[in-house]
Amino acid sequence: MTALLEAIDVKVTYASPGNAPVEAVRGVSLTLGPGEVLGVVGESGSGKSSLAKALLGLTPLAAGAVRIEGVSIASASRAELLKIRRLVQPVFQDASSVLDPSWRIGQSLEEPLVIHGLSAPRRSARVAELLASVQLDASLALLKPHQLSAGQRQRVNVARAMAVEPRVLVLDEPVSALDLSVQAQLLNLLMQLKRERALALLFITHALDVVAHLADRIAVMHAGQFVEEGTVAQVLSAPTHPFTRQLLDDARP
């Protein structure tokens, strides 16, 4: 079976004036299949967000390849890129950076529907469906982002990602800015959506304990590389890399 999302020896570098280029991602490979959850865990600056942007086609690769259903992002045609954008959607940490503060929530949810060609009569009903899918009342479509709580804004962010019925969500620290109780509610919602829609999730976080109860596999990222990979049980019960052991120690009360 062709992987939904595949990275092959991906490298990402950034220019550094007067110095050698900075290697943010150093030869990372991964696969993600239908309905699977991969947790990518690492400290700030480990390259997690750079990897997410590479997987989404938002930053150029210095080397390697990213494939969506077997199609390379780098060589995809315009029509293939449009399909890829529907198949793989991001959910970022700061919902406020995605939601235009001058737009009502309904407008923000309609935007991807317009881009992907949904007819105007269908869009209003689709907005209500999307809000219901993340357990929000349809009346919130008339509000602006500042009138919602942080948890509600992040649910809208998830609804916006789900608007074009993707098969993969790339989630970059989606709960780190939320209170613990709100975190738990959003994680439960994501797992519900995953079960109902056979979604594949690539969940990026700095906390092992966050992904311990929702991931099938964990990849530990340090200094731009995956230093340990395995099932949740393998990584949590018998970590082999010192950095993984440090993360586990930090997670203990």
3D structure, described in words:
This protein has 253 residues and is an alpha/beta fold. The protein has a single domain (5-251), classed as P-loop containing nucleotide triphosphate hydrolases (Rossmann fold). The chain is built from nine helices and ten strands. The strands form two sheets. Strands 6-7-8-3-9-10 form a six-stranded mixed beta sheet, sandwiched between helices. Strands 2-1-4-5 form a four-stranded antiparallel beta sheet, covered by helices on one side. α3 (105-115) crosses α4 and α5 (150-162) runs parallel beside α6 (180-197). 40% of the residues are buried. The model has no long low-confidence stretch (mean pLDDT 92).
Beta strand %: 15-25%
Helices, by number, come to 9
Structural class: alpha/beta
Overall structural domain count = 1
Tell me the strand order in the biggest sheet: 6-7-8-3-9-10
Question: Could you tell me the number of beta strands?
Answer: 10
- The CATH topology is Rossmann fold
Largest sheet: 6 strands, mixed
